[in-house]
Specification:
It is a single chain. By secondary structure, the chain is an alpha/beta fold. The protein is 25% helix and 27% strand. It has 2 domains: 2-173, AF0625-like (Aminopeptidase); 187-279, AF0625-like (Rossmann fold), CATH 3.40.50. The protein contains 8 helices and 14 strands. Strands 2-3-4-1-5-9-6-8 form an 8-stranded mixed beta sheet. It has a 4-stranded parallel beta sheet with strand order 11-10-13-14. α1 (11-22) crosses α4 (161-173). The longest helix is centred in the middle third of the chain and has 13 residues, at 161-173.
C-alpha cells in the first residue's frame, strides 16, 4: 500500500487531490482521516489532512500496518520564482526550523526518489526545472519511508494544471526499480555537497547510475554531528552502502571532515563524477 498525502492548506496539494479524484479514477471509501474521506485506486490510498503538508505525523496512527511509502503531494515555494518540479525526503540535519525534530531524519526511499526524478524529467515544458532538493524540513518521525513531490515556486505554478496533472501521473508511475538504462543495479547512496536544489546530483548521467536517499548540502556539513551523518545511512531504504561526494560542491575542510568520518566508520565513498563513467 502506498499512501498519498494531500493537505487542505496547500494550494498545489488540493489541485493534485482534484486531479486524482476527478481524472485519475480514485474512488471514495468509508474510511476517514482527519474527518475527510479516504480514496483508493489499485494499491494507492489518498488521504486529505486539514493542516498543511508538514505536521502530518498523526497519519501514522490511521493504518494497522505501515505502508510501503508515504508520498506527500505539495507545493514548492521559492522567493527566486524559479519554476520547478522536485522531489526530496524530509528531515533535519541541524535544528528543526520547520517541523520534525532536531537532528532527526525520516526514512528516505532512495529508489523511489531516483525514479520519481526520472519521471519528472519527462515533463516537456522547458520552463520548469526538474531536480532533487536536499533533505530539509519535517516531518521526521514517520513509520515508513516518505518523500515530497512538489510543484513550484509560486501561486502561478501551484495553479498550473498542466504541471499539476503531470506530477500526479508521475506519483502513480514512479516505482522502486533498481536498474539503470543498461539493466545494471544502481548504487544506493547518501549524497554530500552542492546547493539546495542539488543540480549535479540531478543530472541524467548520475541519476541513472546512483540512487541518493538523503542529500546533505554544502551549507550544513561543517555543523552536522557525526551521529546524524551516520543516521542518514541507516535511514535510507534500501540501506545506503556508499557515500557520494559532489566534489566541487564541497570545501576543502568539508572533504577532510567527511572522509575522516567515512573511514572511521568503514563507509566506502566515491566522487559523484565517478558514476558518470558507468554510462560509457
Amino acid at each position: 500500500m502506498k499512501v498519498i498525502i494531500t493537505a487542505k492548506e496547500n494550494i498545489a496539494s488540493m489541485n493534485m487531490f482534484k486531479v486524482f479524484v476527478e481524472e485519475l479514477g480514485f474512488v471514495k471509501t468509508e474510511q476517514v482521516v482527519d474527518d475527510n474521506p479516504v480514496y483508493r485506486k489499485d494499491d494507492f490510498v489518498l488521504v486529505t489532512l486539514n493542516s498543511n503538508v508538514i505536521p502530518i505525523e498523526h497519519v501514522n496512527e490511521y493504518f494497522e500496518e505501515p505502508p510501503e511509502i508515504y508520498i506527500v503531494a505539495s507545493s514548492h515555494k521559492s522567493e527566486g520564482g524559479v519554476k520547478l518540479l522536485s522531489c526530496h525526503s524530509p528531515g533535519n540535519w541541524l535544528e528543526a526550523g520547520l517541523g520534525g525534530k532536531d537532528e532527526e531524519l525520516a526514512v528516505a526511499p532512495a529508489l523511489y526518489l531516483r525514479n520519481m526524478l526520472k519521471e519528472l524529467k519527462k515533463y516537456p515544458s522547458k520552463e520548469y526545472q526538474k531536480s532533487y532538493e536536499v533533505t530539509h524540513h519535517g516531518p521526521s518521525s514517520m513509520n515508513a519511508p516518505i518523500m515530497f513531490v512538489e510543484v513550484g515556486a509560486s501561486e502561478v505554478e501551484w495553479n498550473d494544471m498542466d504541471a499539476v496533472r503531470f506530477v500526479c501521473k508521475c506519483i502513480l508511475t514512479a516505482n522502486d526499480d533498481n536498474k539503470n538504462n543498461k539493466g545494471k543495479e544502481v548504487s544506493v547512496a547518501v549524497g554530500f555537497g552542492g546547493p539546495h536544489y542539488a543540480p549535479v546530483f540531478s543530472r541524467d548521467e548520475y541519476a541513472d547510475n546512483v540512487a541518493v536517499g538523503h542529500i546533505m548540502p554544502k551549507y550544513a556539513v561543517a555543523d552536522v554531528k557525526e551521529e546524524t551523518i551516520l543516521q542518514a545511512f541507516e535511514k535510507t531504504e534500501p540501506k545506503a552502502t556508499i557515500a557520494v561526494m559532489e566534489w566541487k560542491g564541497l570545501s576543502g575542510k568539508d572533504k577532510i571532515r567527511l572522509k575522516e568520518i567515512f573511514e572511521k566508520n568503514n563507509i566506502p565513498w566515491k566522487k559523484l563524477k565517478e558514476f558518470k563513467s558507468l554510462e560509457d
